[in-house]
Every structure is written in structure tokens, then in C-alpha cells.
Design goal:
29% helix; 169 residues; three-stranded antiparallel β-sheet; alpha+beta; 4 helices
């Protein structure tokens, strides 16, 4: 599938290759994300011991909720695949900062920004935890940033935890 957006007004659309025609055909017009998607979170839990307190609390709340059903963890390890699932089903994709990568690991210009643009144009949110990804003024070509993107309710929850723990990048 090829996903494209030309901005908020045009929306987000998905195209699939039809081999019999040799062309991409619009199969998913006007993809939109619900404020609350499926109960899925996606991140590499191998770095859990190096996360900040906001991320630790968020993941713990999803794994062991006080009320309701726990979330499912789904992590392919490919940002494109994980974000595509988040776009289609909702939930949240996270690549938080860690002790070894305090500014995050994903590159702002060619990883974080394109995905943030698509997610936001579909009605989701994209944040570093303390601000919108698309509002960052790059200072270097390979600048890195933490990434939290997905359904608005989920991203707003991590933003609230960043505020609660007074975390700013």
C-alpha cells in the first residue's frame, strides 16, 4: 500500500498496486483515525530500563490497568509497518528517548516528520512528549527526536505524563 497526503484539506488516502493494470488504485479513501483506537501500543520494550518516568508509567498503565482490559503490545521493529497498523487501527507508536539516546533515535527530517504529517492529517497526533513534532525547527540534517504518534487520546495521555513528571527535552 502507498499512503499519501497533500495536507489536511486533501486528507490521507491509500493506494494498492493492481498487477493486472500495472497501476496503483485508490483502495482506502479518506483514512481517518478515531480519537480512541484499538488498545494497542507499539514500542521496543527491550529498552524499558532506560526510559524516563513518563514512558514507564504509560506502559505500566497499559499493561496493568486499574480498570478494564490491558492493551496488546505489537512491535514489528519497522517504523513504516508499525505506523501503518497504528494509522489503520489506532493506538500509539512510540520511540521514546532512552539513556543511550536522550534526544531520541529517529531522524526528524526523514522519519519523524513524514509519519507525523500523515498521522496528523488523518486526525491523530504526533508529539515528542513535550511538543508537536511538526513544530520542531531543525538545526541539523540528521537531527533526532523522540516520537509518540497515533490516536489523539493516547498521545494526549503521554503528553499529560510528560507534564506530570516535568519532562522537557
Amino acid at each position: 500500500m502507498v499512503v499519501i497526503s497533500l495536507g489536511k484539506e486533501s486528507g490521507v488516502h491509500g493506494f494498492m498496486l493492481d498487477p493486472s493494470l500495472g497501476e496503483f488504485v485508490l483502495t482506502h479513501p479518506k483514512i481517518t483515525m478515531a480519537p480512541k483506537g484499538k488498545s494497542i501500543y507499539s514500542l521496543n520494550e527491550g529498552y524499558a530500563s532506560t526510559w524516563n518516568e513518563a514512558v514507564k508509567e504509560y506502559v505500566n498503565n497499559k499493561k496493568f490497568p486499574q480498570n478494564g482490559k490491558s492493551y496488546s503490545s505489537r512491535y514489528v521493529g519497522s517504523m513504516v509497518a508499525d505506523v501503518h497498523r497504528t494509522l489503520v487501527y489506532g493506538g500509539i507508536f512510540m520511540y521514546p528517548p532512552s539513556a543511550s539516546s536522550p534526544k531520541g533515535k529517529l531522524r526528524l527530517l526523514y522519519e519523524a516528520n513524514p509519519m507525523a504529517f500523515i498521522i496528523e492529517n488523518a486526525g491523530g497526533l504526533a508529539s515528542t512528549g513535550s511538543g508537536r513534532i511538526l513544530e520542531i525547527q531543525p538545526t541539523k540534517i540528521h537531527e533526532r527526536a523522540p516520537v509518540f504518534l497515533g490516536s489523539a487520546d493516547e498521545v494526549n495521555e503521554i503528553i499529560a505524563l510528560y507534564k506530570k513528571h516535568n519532562i522537557t527535552q
